Amino acid sequence: MKNLTMILSPNRTSRKGSVPDVICCHQSNAPIQDRLRVYSDPKSMESVHFAVAKSGAVYQIAEIGFSAMAFPHPEEEPLCRTVRERLAAPDRYTVSVEFENEKSGILTIAQYRAGLEVFLSVIDGIRKIYGGFLLDREHFIGHYEIEPSEAPNCPGIDFPLNRYLADLKKILG
Ligand SMILES: [Zn+2]
From ligand 1's centre to the CA of 167, what distance in Å? Predict the structure, then answer.
């Protein structure tokens, strides 16, 4: 992946046997450099796997074999059925990808393309390491579908979840 910088975070844990099979999209609500500082700080106990800047720059913060620390308040009534039906904490089986953005979540063209490359790379990695990835809206979701009360606007209403899913299906067949 071009434009990729590794800034691995100390804030990662074991997947404890869970297979990553859900990609979860987030919105930074802050400049990406501010978020990277938070992810580098062990005291924050926060991280995601990838961050995609408005410029199209991509930062890898955790390897997909590890759990990131993205969901501090797991809720009892997630919107996503896959999440609702599982006992394990969402961090165990998700790959979190954050986009530098605020408000409604409209991406820049460079950012959309970089995000697409990140998702292709994540899916390719999961398929190689774990054998498969089911590409549908139950496995490609927004943070609000895991924590509808805590994070109703993560990512924003204009974040192109469905366009990404359609493009990924077109490319991957
Ligand atoms: Zn989020």
Answer: 22
Categorise residue 5: left if φ over 0, alpha if ψ from -120 to 50, beta otherwise: beta
Domain that holds residue 15: 4-172
Q: How far is the CA of 147 from the centre of ligand 1 (A)?
A: 9
Q: Cβ(12)–Cβ(68) under 8 Å?
A: yes
CA of 155 to the centre of ligand 1 (A): 7
pTM above 0.90, yes or no: yes
Q: Using one digit for the tens of pLDDT, what is the confidence trace for 149-158?
A: 999 999 999 9
Structurally, the chain folds into a number of domains equal to 1
- The CATH number given to whatever domain includes residue 151 is 3.40.80.10
| Digit-coded pLDDT (tens) for 75-127 | 889 999 999 999 999 999 999 999 999 999 999 999 999 999 999 999 999 99
